[in-house]
Structure prediction request, 220 residues.
Amino acid sequence: MWNTIKAKMANKKAVSDFRKLTVQYAESPVDTTLDVNAKMNELQSVDGDLSDLQAKYMAAAAETAIRSLPDGQNFQIGASNLTATMILASLFHEKNRNALQLVDPDNKAANVNQLAETSVRGDTSEKISHSTKSVDSFFLDKNPSVSFALIDACDDYSDAKQIYQTCADHTETGSLIAAFDVDNEACAASLKAFREVLLDQPQWVLWAHCKNLAVVRREF
Prediction:
């Protein structure tokens, strides 16, 4: 029991320290040309706990990345938030950019293209490419250049670190990586991996943060 209590205290401190670090980024002046409010209203029936502010920051990060690296590929790793998937697919549809590559090893989004046809414009489904391969297998097979990535939190540190590292290894200057729930105490393992692989490395800077979404940008 004492070890469990100590672990919870350590997780709470890690999240508290991260929030102190990111306080100046709360509601920072990032913006997107996507009408996020309208899209969120369209997507009320779609699964995914996404706030209006998270949607705005995520879309702004993706739009910034595709302006900087228009030939790169755009990823969502993990399919726990299909509202986020629809927002990103809508953005890439409007900007006529490469499809969102959804890497979904647990196959949580088997109906993702059908969902896009019913929840947003039908041809938005063409902007979603769905794979059930593992992250390692997909990146080893495709060797993509990552412009933007949105990554689900993991409750296992080793899994989280491997995912962040695999994604980071395929980025270049101007790439942005957004991470869900890294300041959620239940996902402290993911926060530890996020900091070690990205935030604490000199080539990465914190670009934006709001509750349960942090975005870093590769500077060199």
Observations:
- The longest helix spans residues 2-22.
- The beta strands are 73-77, 100-103, 128-131, 146-151, 171-180, 204-210, 213-218.
